[in-house]
Design goal:
two-stranded antiparallel sheet; 6 helices; Arc Repressor Mutant, subunit A; 2 strands; mainly alpha; 162 residues
Length: 162
């Protein structure tokens, strides 16, 4: 597969997250891309990534959504779970370089306008208040009191002073 860009690997990872149980809509893919730390900033680049991955048989359109083919799922399995996003993108790019498509398939019809609509819809949802359960919880600041065996007594026995 040639040429290979970072957006190709980012699209594969975002589609993997968004389409776990069913084909993902374009808005869900945009939200997953933002969640993994690769927001869609250039819709034209993502449009060409959709075209490249679909013609090489890695991305298919199913109804209103998009899903990965078994070849693409095999490509993204086995990635280290504790790796950073940049490292995962690099590993997927390496696997994309080794991919040899069996036959070219018709490209998925995707336009930059569709991506713009999905971006604005995702932006409108982000502006709404609400609790996002996927966001990491803030870390607790260090307290002023010491922690350790002297700060808490087991079984609630108070100290006796004589």
């Amino acid at each position: 597969m040639y040429p290979i860009h970072d957006t190709d690997a980012q699209l594969l990872l975002a589609t993997l997250i968004a389409a776990k149980r069913r084909p993902a809509t374009l808005q869900e893919i945009v939200a997953a891309a933002e969640f993994i730390g690769c927001p869609v900033t250039a819709p034209k680049a993502w449009e060409t990534a959709f075209e490249r991955l679909s013609t090489h048989g890695l991305l298919v359109a199913e109804g209103e959504g998009f899903a990965l083919t078994p070849a693409a799922q095999a490509m993204v399995t086995g990635l280290p779970k504790k790796a950073e996003t940049d490292e995962r993108v690099f590993l997927v790019r390496e696997k994309l370089t080794l991919h040899k498509p069996a036959a070219t398939v018709a490209a998925v019809a995707m336009t930059a306008e569709q991506l713009d609509v999905a971006l604005t819809a995702h932006g409108a949802l982000a502006q709404q208040g609400g609790k996002n359960l996927l966001m990491p919880k803030p870390k607790r600041e260090e307290d002023n009191y010491p922690r350790g065996p002297q700060s808490r007594r087991p079984f609630g026995n108070p100290r006796r002073y004589s």
